[in-house]
Amino acid sequence: MMDWQATLHRLAKHSVFNLAGTVVDTLVLWFCAHYLFETYFGKVLLAPLISFECANIVNYLFARRYVWMDRMSGRSKTFSFRHYLAYNASYSGVFLVKTGLLLVVERITRWDVVWCNLAALLLSGIINFILTDRVLFKKR
Predict the structure, then answer these.
(1) What is the mean pLDDT of residues 97-109?
(2) By CB neighbour count within 10 A (0-12 exposed, 13-18 middle, 19+ buried), where does 118 fall?
(3) CB atoms near residue 77 (< 10 Å)
C-alpha cells in the first residue's frame, strides 16, 4: 500500500474504533450531566472531563491493538503506562479544543450538553487522528 493509502486505511480504522470511545463518552457524559451534577460548572466542565477520560482509555486500547499495531515492535506491543501518559497528553490537547468547541456550540445553540459534545467530538476527531498518527505512533 502507498503511504497515503495506508494513512487513509488507518483513518478509517481510527474513525470506526473511535465510535466506541464516542459511545462511552456520550453515555458517561449523559449520566454525569443528568444524575451526578446539578451546577453549570459540573454539567458543562466536570462531566465532559470525566467522560473524556473514560473514552480516552477505550480509544487508547483500540488504537494500540487495531489501528497502529503495524508501527509497534517487540516490547512496545505490551501495555505501557508511560506510552499511555504520552497518548493522554496528546489527547488532552484535543480535549481542550473539544471543550472550547463544546462551549461555543452550547452558547450559540443552547442545545443540551450531550448534543454539543457530539458536535465538538466530530470537529475535534480529525485533530486527534493527525496528532496520534504523526506524533505518537509515527514511523520509526
Answers:
(1) 88
(2) middle
(3) 11
Report whether 140 contacts 71 (CB < 8 A). Answer: yes
Contact status, residue 51 vs residue 32, Cβ threshold 8 Å: yes
Distance CA 4, CA 21 (A): 25
Instruction: List pLDDT tens digits, range 43-73.
Output: 988 998 899 889 888 888 887 877 777 666 6
Nine-digit cell at 127? 485533530
Q: Which residue in the block uniquely carries the three cell numbers 445553540?
A: 109
Can you spell out the DSSP letters for 60-105? HHHIIIIISGGG--GGGGS--HHHHHHHHHHHHHHHHHHHHHHHHH
* pLDDT classification of 6: cutoffs 50, 70, 90: confident
Nearest to 25 by CA among 108, 106, 94: 94
What pTM was estimated for this model as a whole? Answer: 0.67
